[in-house]
Amino acid sequence: MAALLLALLQGSLLVSPMYLADQPPEGRAVQGLLVVHQGTPGVSRSIGRSRDEASGQAEALRERLARGADFAGLARARSEHASSRIGGVLGTVWPGLLPPALDAVLFEAEVGEHSGVIESYAGCHVLRRIE
């Protein structure tokens, strides 16, 4: 029993570091907008839009951002993610925490830059890298 407990503790993130390299990977702070569709897991049946309609709505939001709209205000008004209440701020993420398509865009973006529409299992996203 003691050996099992010791093995569990050694594998714990509280005891062992998550990254064993000299320098942990650099995180990125991000804001996001999300538009869901019928195929999004866990979405209410009352959402009647198709994947193409969700992509079109996300593209319209991206165009508004390109014309200078405030990301936080747009997130509060139009995003369907729980973070919409706080202006779409998702916090800091590290490589591998987000779906690969989102990671690829976020870790190439400059601070202040927003993405195009990115589709994932969760819906259609527009991301913005923040400080």
Q: Estimate the global geometry from the Cα principal axes.
A: globular
- Count the E strands: 4
Helix content: 25-40%
Beta content comes to: 15-25%
Looking across the biggest beta sheet, what order are the strands in? Answer: 2-1-4-3
Any idea what the radius of gyration is?
18 Å
Structural class by secondary-structure content: alpha+beta
Alpha-carbon distance between the two ends: 47 Å
Q: Please summarize the sheet with the most strands.
A: 4 strands, antiparallel
Uncertain stretches: none
Quote the average pLDDT.
86
Number of helical stretches of at least 4 residues: 4
Written as H for each helix and E for each strand, in order along the chain, the element string is HEHHEHEE
Q: Helix and strand layout, with pairings?
A:
Blueprint: H1 2-10, E1 28-35, H2 51-66, H3 71-78, E2 89-93, H4 100-106, E3 118-120, E4 123-130
Antiparallel strand pairs: 1-2, 1-4, 3-4
